[in-house]
Amino acid sequence: MRDGAAATGTRDGATAPGLGLREILDLDRAHVWHPYGPMPGRQEPLVVESAAGVRLSVAGVGELIDGMSSWWSAIHGYNHPVLNEAVRDQLDRMSHVMFGGLTHEPAVSLAKRLVDITPDGLEHVFLADSGSVSVEVAVKMCLQHWRSLGRPEKQRMLTWRGGYHGDTWQPMAVCDPQGGMHSLWQGLLPEQVFADLPPAGFDAYDEAYARHLHDLIGRHADELAGVIVEPVVQGAGGMRFHSPRYLRALREACDTHGVLLVFDEIATGFGRTGALFAADHAGVTPDVMCLGKSLTGGYLTMAATLCTARVADGIARGEVPVLAHGPTFMGNPLAAAVANASIDLLLGQDWATEVKRVETGLRAALAPAAELPGVQDVRILGALGVVQLDHQVDMEAATRAAVRAGVWVRPFRDLIYAMPPFVTGDDDIARIGRAVCAAAAASTAANRGEVRA
Ligand SMILES: Cc1ncc(COP(=O)(O)O)c(C=O)c1O
């Protein structure tokens, strides 16, 4: 690197110390890989200078209302005094120590909280450093459980189509094999068993589909270590909702056929769908549960894999009685401290009423979208509102329209959606709705080759 990250350079717009706006964008394009992005980048990203409450301060643009909670995570908004204080307080004690042979109060306290608030029966907690890693750990737990019990042939996972579980190897193998982002690796990834897409709709239930799940699990039981699903909402695989009753069907089928059940609640956990965990909609305890994203209120990267005593006991009986996984930053005290504060903040308020308020607001604000040309479906559940188009979103047109309306959203595929922080006020929710409608209209116009306003 010659052109100098340390350069103070010309300051052509940005107010942050160090690089100027143009330099940031040029260096970003030259050196920085963004999520799911090409190198060099093709679309110029917005440069965020700071964030507070539900607003992002964007260089050269001004304030944008955040419709994304930074991908499901910032449920309390940004720069929250309580969460800031938790990080500062922990920083003064220690930012990190290794977790092998050492432990500390923030991590132990967090594990206790998670055991207390997740469905009964989940007792043991593995603190991972990202959602994808927590899914790796979940799959490893399932395979090792059976291997330890003398059933090494039980080494496949079953899931339904349309899922998304992360970007590392095992998670990619249980993402949707066709529509998903990882179809490139078909043939290289472990070949898992896929059930049909769950029928759409939180309130719809199809007995025939429940039978399909049961039959498929039964047919493959001898080779299945576990079933893994995103409960109630399939997120990055398509923002689809399904009936919680299928979770009960899965629980029954797994119990009948001797297969472990994993819920990936990385996106749905901590209130987003209107229940504290999506599993609570069904009253089901999985054998393994993954949490992440809003675990730390969106402050720091941390995830958790919880399991029942049965799963842990199985592993302990093996020739190798340990779970061979140990990230360097496992149990990071800063992340654990802010996770504790975030959970206390959430549970210390009437979070369910707040999520309901956001849901009601989104329902009203997105209703006009259903009338727009190019819109196929509008669906809302908890603090999540989705507008599905009949075409691939024109990202540039949609994003520009939303930003012009003062809102940050990040559409993908045929979806424009909003999952605002739970603290978003009613006026801001209304504005998010208007921005999503504007984004949908702009995308449709671009798709049809019409001139945009
Ligand atoms: C359901 C689900 N599982 C796993 C992941 C992966 O988490 P991370 O991005 O923290 O690795 C995500 C991320 O979007 C997710 O939505």
Automatic annotation (TrEMBL):
Gene3D superfamilies named in the record: Aspartate Aminotransferase, domain 1, Type I PLP-dependent aspartate aminotransferase-like (Major domain)
Alphabetical list of NCBIfam families matching this protein: bioA, PRK05964.1
Family: Belongs to the class-III pyridoxal-phosphate-dependent aminotransferase family. BioA subfamily.
SUPFAM superfamilies reported for this sequence: PLP-dependent transferases
Leader sequence residues: none
Binding sites annotated in the UniProt record for pyridoxal 5'-phosphate: G131, S132, D264, P327, T328
Protein name: Adenosylmethionine-8-amino-7-oxononanoate aminotransferase
Site entry: Participates in the substrate recognition with KAPA and in a stacking interaction with the adenine ring of SAM: Y36
Species, as recorded: Streptomyces silvensis
GO cellular component terms given for this protein: cytoplasm
Subunit and interaction comment: Homodimer.
Gene responsible for this protein: bioA
Localization (cell): Cytoplasm
UniProt enzyme class: transferase
Gene Ontology biological-process entries: biotin biosynthetic process
InterPro entries: Aminotrans_3, Aminotrans_3_PPA_site, BioA, PyrdxlP-dep_Trfase, PyrdxlP-dep_Trfase_major, PyrdxlP-dep_Trfase_small
Pathway the protein takes part in: Cofactor biosynthesis; biotin biosynthesis; 7,8-diaminononanoate from 8-amino-7-oxononanoate (SAM route): step 1/1
Modified residues (N6-(pyridoxal phosphate)lysine): K293
Xref: HAMAP family: BioA (MF_00834)
Lineage: Bacteria, Bacillati, Actinomycetota, Actinomycetes, Kitasatosporales
Keywords for the protein's UniProt record, in alphabetical order: Aminotransferase, Biotin biosynthesis, Cytoplasm, Pyridoxal phosphate, S-adenosyl-L-methionine, Transferase
EC annotation from Swiss-Prot or TrEMBL: 2.6.1.62
Pfam family, one: Aminotran_3
Record GO terms (molecular function): adenosylmethionine-8-amino-7-oxononanoate transaminase activity; pyridoxal phosphate binding
PROSITE patterns: AA_TRANSFER_CLASS_3
Role description: Catalyzes the transfer of the alpha-amino group from S-adenosyl-L-methionine (SAM) to 7-keto-8-aminopelargonic acid (KAPA) to form 7,8-diaminopelargonic acid (DAPA). It is the only aminotransferase known to utilize SAM as an amino donor.
Residue numbers binding substrate: W71, Y164, K293, G326, R410
